[in-house]
Every structure is written in structure tokens, then in C-alpha cells.
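User: Here's a protein and a ligand (3-methyl-2-oxobutanoic acid). What would the complex look like?
Assistant: Let me lay out the input and then the predicted complex.
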Amino acid sequence: MPKDRVYIFDTTLRDGEQVPGCKLNTIEKLELALQLEDLGVDIIEAGFPISSPGDFESVSQIAKHIKNATVCGLSRAVQKDIETAAQALKHASKPRIHTGIGTSDYHIKSKFNSTREEILQRAIQCVKWAKNFTDDVEFYAEDAGRTDNDYLAKVIEAVISAGATVVNIPDTTGYCLPYQYGEKIAYLVNNVPNIDKAVISCHCHNDLGLATANSISGVIAGARQIECTVNGLGERAGNTSLEEVVMIIRQHKHLGFCTNIKTEQLNPISRRVSDTMRMPVQPNKAIVGSNAFSHSSGIHQDGFLKNALTYEIINPEEVGADSSKIVLTARSGRSALAYRFQKLGFQFDRNDIDELYNTFLSVADKKKEVEDPDLVAMAKQHQKSTVTL
Ligand code: KIV
Ligand code: ZN
């Protein structure tokens, strides 16, 4: 059966770049955009053109140079924002304007001091303004995660009638549980009569560590676009991480989805984004962390050395990572020690390894990790003592 394509909307250069310390200049943004296009993302959210002259310039340059991916610019539901976004995107071969407004009562009352009816009218209006410049208009209902479903359905129906081709349902505060977010998407699928005229998009934040789970739950319920960032960068605790959703879709083929991402580029682009944005990746980060393919406990190492599949569900090559590592710590076992000696060119029998293992443990208890020079010293010492005997 053909698989359903899930569109990857990358917002590393917009939501990701909002992170304090991650700001990029135009050249850096353009270089990353070209690499994102090569990775195979479908849409690049290049920035928020009204926010600063520098960001306007970055979006314009990206729009000029990107040929295959759609280039998207963010705006509020404000005429000037939309006109500025359109201006910045004017040379794009596939321009998209992303406009919208907060729809939860928190936003309506506290942020806008307004009413649901007024916000509904502004939502319709902003899509109509954006439609003057491009056919491809995405509407976001900010804080949809905490928006009443009936009202959200009303807004979504109205903006699709006004011409929105993509409807973004952000869990802006990362509040939803996966089943709740999935139910919200299912509610829209079942209660918005014209929903088949638009693609539903997930935009989930990670305040409770659920962004990836929520996005996948949204796709299972009917969404076909995921908004995400490389390394999960984004406001506060971040956004859905691109590498995670892509590999979940690839690992769980039975779900029936696919993306266009060249997965062997996931680790190289993660490093590139981390270096350019000067934002380190946590070592235990799924797919792209430095420990993602390291094995350090004796039980795991023994199983892994017998058959990698016992403890690894992804081949590191598939995601462009260095080959799996057997790390030696005080929790490691004899098989791992023998394996590392062998890699260094030392062949020891079972008795040798038993003896060496005791020396190894005394070193390992003093150090966090036992490294090649320690092993070479141990092996040479052992060889000397056995020759003397
Ligand atoms: O988190 C959010 O709601 C956003 C919107 C502007 C799409 O980033
Ligand atoms: Zn966001």
C-alpha cells in the first residue's frame, strides 16, 4: 500500500532561532537553509520578516536561493506584518505566508482584551489579506492546545473558507497529553465540514517533554504536516525535534507514513546547527546525541557484541552517526574489555581476561571512563608479568 506522505515543516530558522543566544546572521541562515533543502524538508520557515530589518533580509535571501522547498514567512494577524512577509517572499519560487492569532481564552482575554467573535473575524481577515499575495496560506491558531474544541473548529472552518490551505494547531505551551492532542486533531477531522480542503499541521512545544509524542499522535489522528526543528530547538523547552519524528515514522512503517528526509544527513545537520547556533546537543539526545549509539553497561555490551539488534533499533549509518561505541566504565563487563583489547591488537585468552578484568576494575573505579592509553598500559604490564613468570 502506498504510504501517506507527512510534510516536514522546518522552523529551526524561526522558532529555533528565537532561543536566546541562537540568533543567526543572514549568511548563516542562508547556509543552513540550503542544507535543510538538501536534507529534504518540504517547507522552510525562514523567519519573521516584520521583526527586524535583518530578518527581513534573511527571509528575502532565502526566498531567492531556495528552489525546491516552500519558503515560509511568519506574521501576526496584522496587515502590515502580512504585507512585509509578502514583500520578503516576493522572489520565492514557492512562497507561503504563515499568519494567525491566539484562540485560547488566555490569549483572547489577557493578550487581546477581546472576544471570541472579534478574534474569529480577525482570523478570517488575516487569511484574506494573505491570499492577496499567495495561494499558499497557512493559518495558526496560537495556543490551540488550550483552546475549546468547539470554538477551535468554528475558527478552522472559517479560515479554510477564507482560503487557508494549511491549518496549524499549535500546542504553544506544551500542555497537552498525547491522547488529548490526538483527540483534538480527530475532533477537527470529524467536525470541520471543509477540513478536506486543507492540510492539518502539528506544532508542538516540549514544556512537558511530550512534543514528539504529541506530533506523532496528531499525525495518527489525521494531521499530515509536522512543524519541527533540528535538535528540538525552540522557545523555552523547545519544539518537536525533526530527527525524532522522522525516525519514528521510518522505524514504525506499519503506521503507513513516510517523509522525504535523507536520514543519513541527520547527524551532520545536527552538528552544523549546533555549531552555527552555538548550542550544544545533550549527550543523551535521541538520534543525534553523542551517547545515542554508545553502550556502557556489561549486560548491554555483551548482548550488543553478540548481535547489535539486541540493544540497537537504528543502524548509526542510517542517520549519519559514527559507528556504535563500546565505552568502558566500572559497569562494563569482560566481553567488552576483550573486544576493546582486540580492537587495539591484543589477543588474550579467557584466563588473561579474568586477570586483566580485576586490574581494569580498579582503574575504572577511579576514572569515569577507561580509555585506549589506559588499556595499552594494562595490556603491556600484563604481557611483561606473564613473560617474567
Ligand atoms: O508556538 C506557536 O504557537 C508558534 C506560532 C507562532 C505558530 O510558534
Ligand atoms: Zn512555536
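Summary: The first strand starts at residue 4 and ends at 5.
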